[in-house]
Design goal:
With 502 residues, the chain is of the alpha/beta class. It is built from 20 helices and 13 strands. The strands form 2 sheets. The protein has a 7-stranded parallel beta sheet with strand order 3-2-1-4-5-6-7, sandwiched between helices. Strands 10-9-8-11-12-13 form a 6-stranded parallel beta sheet, sandwiched between helices. The structure holds uridine-5'-diphosphate-xylopyranose. This is Glycosyltransferase.
Length: 502
Amino acid sequence: METPGTDSSVPPPHVLIFPFPIQGHMNCMLYLSEMLVYSGFHITLLLTDHNLSLLGSSSNNNNHSHPSSLPDIPRLRVLSIPDCLPADHPRNLDGWVELLDSLKTNACPLYKSLLLDLCKMDVSADGFPAVTCVIADGILPFMIDASEQVGVPAIAFRTASASSVWIYYCIPQLIQSGEVPFRDGADWDEPINSIPGMESFLRRRDLPSPCRLAKNPEDKVLQLLATCTAHSERTRGLILNTLETLESISLEQIRAHMPTTYAIGPLHEMVRAYRSQNNVCAHDKSVSLWHQDCTCMTWLDQQPRRSVIYVSYGSIAVMTQESLIEFWIALVNSGEHFLWVVRSDLLRGEEWTNIRDSLSLEVRKGTEERGCIVSWVPQVEVLAHPAVGCFLTHSGWNSTLESIVGGVPMLCWPFAVDQQINSRLVGEVWRIGLDMKDVCDRTTIEKMVRAAMNGETASEIRKNAHELAKMVNNSVVEGGSSFENFQRLIEYIKSLCKRNVQ
Ligand code: UDX
């Protein structure tokens, strides 16, 4: 990996990284930060005060501190700004649009003044040089604009799949063709024709959830996603946590409009490969907003090979009690062993433990015998455990990539935003899992769990998942596409930093 240039007239690259402040965006942007540190860069990871406090630390502006739950990486510091929302605001799927609004209206001016300060200092008290480049979450286009206004070149990073980014880019065509908003009585299994490259597999129900929820073309969320994606065309570049062979069609389409697009994923595997090849002491810490319950690893150790179905709905999904009960009964009735992540905020205003007390004795007994329910797990480790036979997932992009890397087949129950298209890719394009979207009844879930764990279908998706894992794992080592794209990205960032001082 590169070391910083020795030309003393050029400042050392110092990149400020600003993820949208929810778990699935913070994870992979931390991995990106770590990879940039290994390339000799200084990194300032900008979080919100709220998330920093959940990580076990607090800071204000330049008085940075290192949260105890984050890996201790040299040349990486953490700063924070307020998200300007009340402490008890739901920062999940129910509240993400308000979070975005607040960042735009209230936090953006604070960000701008912080960035101005960070650019002025040649070297700050903690030895960090001036910020020379920003990589901001692509769903924060106003932060990208603010960076450029301060004079710092800014690149967009999207944490979702390239396929979902491509669909968001095509929202104007979907509207123009009349395919979105859905007309009353529309057949959700009908093919969608206005997304170039996806005609052979994309159905109405596979479009990201804002397309099905929109009642009119001016729908706020629909327009928000279309606008931030179109904005990336005007930024210095676009980084995607994906890889060439996995999403070649979407990447080709995106590059026709945004030529400086870098596919450098899966980032968590890039980091693991770098650490193992360079004997970097591996640490098990990660940016986790929930407390990890590692007792599940001991439980997994006691289970036979490929006997466990791992179940998780990611970090922002909010479920109804009725859906949770259907899953619970199905998991028990399937007869399989299950490791189930039930976050403390998964149910709207209800404790899941209250539901347990309302279940039949038989279901409670089955849970005790075969289940392990925890509030948060070290997911990458869980997916690497030999006892795990399948992942019942909400098809968030990080979870999808983590499962692919682990060679674990998926049973997909997509919930929102990009998850509907991710699950279609899993079930129909890569054929490494089964897509269970838009059903939530105990009989179907039980049937799908059995099919994904045992029998002919299970063997087929398992075989495909193993083959795909090999291909993906090859992409992150020297000569692999993500490795080489990452080298190109490093050179590109350095060139932006140089141009900025000339
Ligand atoms: C949503 C989107 O669906 C996703 O595609 C987008 O890019 C980010 O926002 P989210 O619900 O956060 O995603 O899911 P996902 O992208 O899968 O990210 C969840 C992360 O939390 C994963 O990295 C996963 O490893 C981690 N996780 C989850 C844990 O570490 N422990 C758990 O118990 C559950």
